[in-house]
Amino acid sequence: MDEIFGIPAPLLFGQLLLGLINGAFYALLSLGLAVIFGMLNVINFTHGAQFMMGAFVAWMLLHYLGIGYWWALLLAPLIVGFTGVVIEKTMISRLYKLDHLYGLLLTFGVGLIIEGLFRNQYGSSGMPYRIPPELQGAWDLGFMFMPVYRGWVVIVAIVMCLATWLVIEKTKLGSYLRAATENPALVQAFGINVPRMMTLTYGAGVALAAFAGVLAAPIYSVNPQMGANLIIIVFAVVVIGGMGSILGSVVTGFGLGVIEGFTRVFYPEASATVIFVVMAIVLLLRPAGLFGRA
Amino acid sequence: MSQFHRRALLGGAAATAAFGALPAHVARAQAANTVKIGILNDQSGLYRDVNGPGSVACVRQAIQDSGVAARGVNVEVVVGDHQNRPDVGSTITRQWIDRDNVDVILDVPTSSVALAVNTIVRERNKIFLNSSAATSDLTGAQCSPNTIHWTYDTYMLAKSTGGAMVRAGGDTWFFITADYAFGHALERDTSGFVRAAGGRVLGQVRTPFPGTTDFSSFLVQAQSSRAKVIGLANAGGDTINSIKQAAEFGVTRRGTKLAALLMFISDVHSLGLETAQGLVCTESFYWDLNDRTRAFTQRVLPSMPGGLRPGMGQAGCYSAIMHYLKTVAEMGVPAARASGVDTVNRMKAQPTNDDAMGEGTIRPDGRRMQPVYLFEVKTPAESRGAWDYYKLLQTTPAAEAFRPVGEGNCALVRS
């Protein structure tokens, strides 16, 4: 068996693949954060809770209404996105004129409240959610056993990232959004309803988090703290990629997933810390992040 | 911390209000006849369902069932959330003992926190009744005359579950270990049994705690070691995620067996029988074990959070407080509060007996002894109703289940 740095090559390929899968979640979540920060200038700390809500709404749809995975993939983002619209309308929209810190504190608090409510209602162990029958099973790749579902997650995540990037960079709607970020007063003067666009942007960012939550439901235990575990890592991803940079967050998401995967082979004890080490180094060398504009 | 402060404040406010309504001499008499129990556990993280508010419900049930109020003993309860962090747990313990006159620290899951609390309670000569931490060091190298380890420990889990797996032909092992005191102790104790039975440990991987949600990398490493058994030296949410992802990666379909070395009934409930069926686990309590456990469960069920059935950690809290309050009633509150060591010695001197954990004894090293049960998780077809999850495979008598008293290196029993 061939070895690379004393580790069997097949094992290393396996970890590369698993790293990409985890990276897909990081990319999807950091994408939503980047969209919200890029357009609204709000650091959305509720994102982890909204990811968790996506998974829980999928579970509720199945448990109470018998609605399965495929519909949940559509409905859960819409439902959670709508709660995002309500939060933006009633709370966040009042903070646009203030310092970033206020938005951060507000969304952090809202996230804690949502997690607490779910914890009181559903406990900490989580709910069972099975992989849909169409995506069960696994491929034997020779070097590892690859569950079909994880392959699906990577493909969907890449498609979603690409679609979001296209909408923002290549469509008219995207150009309005970008213009509104630069100079909201001027865009409004052209007859475009900027506040509504902000609301919908936040709703869409939240829907992306919920979408990732539904994707995660069959893999991770659907529990109230599932978002809190991820959100800190995802913030590091956004900071490394460059705050608000969509391309940056996607590339960094996948890249850091891979780095974390390799750390799990070479020095597993450090796998929870390695992303923050990378963050520290990047901030020292490029304070605006890898893809950020200083 | 915020929860702890809030609860402590509420408790204090309620107590002040109650005293305010009483004549001064009655209030003084009541204060003199009050013992204070501090339940310190995980109220908000991955171990919440295996102890958390469920332990609080069981303690309140014990206070009621013990009938000490009729004998003039007043019991106050405070609750703290240690967030699985030794620094937070130590701070709360010191505040409780130094400022709030707490007599007993109870429950304390997460071995790293439990070991820190163990030291503080000993320094202050109070009482530490541990139900939910697993490390066998609490009655071994770090044993204390102020501590009783009530419900389970890593040695007993390793011997019962690990021993059963080796007997069934699982003679090569790979461990996925939570990287802190508990995981290390469970891995160490299980490895001992595997080697003693002629088996081999092929490797282990230490997973960061808390904060690991994806175990697929570790499972793939375990699989590529070609070990027959993957030992999960973790607990709560970590165990759930490990088992769920092992099913996804087809680990068991290739003949590798999973050994969930510490699994609770709430974990099985969360996984669902479809995923959990066939796993074996070791517990010292199961709600459907006999008439007494069923009666206990019926009584406490209305106050359990979210319809959970009590698990062994929570039942252990009930049992420990039943025994403690019985001892307090016999000694009288002033004597029981005066010295933690004396009260613990008195508790050790008599057998324990309650509905949840049945009959037991407490050894000089602080280990509470009782029979230990090896269960297999039922298949969906075998399960006849809600929470009907286990079938009993084997009962190990107390004397064989736990580490022999001389082998733990505990200073209290060294000749």
From TrEMBL, chain A:
One of its GO terms (cellular component) is plasma membrane. Keywords: Amino-acid transport, Cell membrane, Membrane, Transmembrane, Transmembrane helix, Transport. It is found in: Cell membrane. It comes from the Bacteria. Its main location: membrane. It is a multi-pass membrane protein. GO terms for biological process: amino acid transport. InterPro entries: ABC_transp_permease (IPR001851), BCAA_transport_permease (IPR052157). GO terms for molecular function: transmembrane transporter activity. The chain crosses the membrane at residues 12-35, 68-87, 99-118, 149-168, 200-220, 226-259, 266-285. The keyword Cell membrane applies. The keyword Protein biosynthesis does not apply. Belongs to the binding-protein-dependent transport system permease family. LivHM subfamily. This is Branched-chain amino acid transport system permease protein. It comes from Roseococcus suduntuyensis.
Automatic annotation (TrEMBL), chain B:
PROSITE patterns: TAT. One of its GO terms (biological process) is amino acid transport. Keywords: Amino-acid transport, Signal, Transport. Residues 34-378 form the Leucine-binding protein domain. Residues 1-26 form the signal peptide. The keyword Transport applies. Gene3D superfamilies: 3.40.50.2300. Pfam families: Peripla_BP_6. InterPro entries: BCAA_transport, Leu-bd, Peripla_BP_I, TAT_signal. It comes from the Bacteria. Belongs to the leucine-binding protein family. This is Branched-chain amino acid transport system substrate-binding protein. It comes from Roseococcus suduntuyensis. The lineage of its organism: Bacteria, Pseudomonadati, Pseudomonadota, Alphaproteobacteria, Acetobacterales.
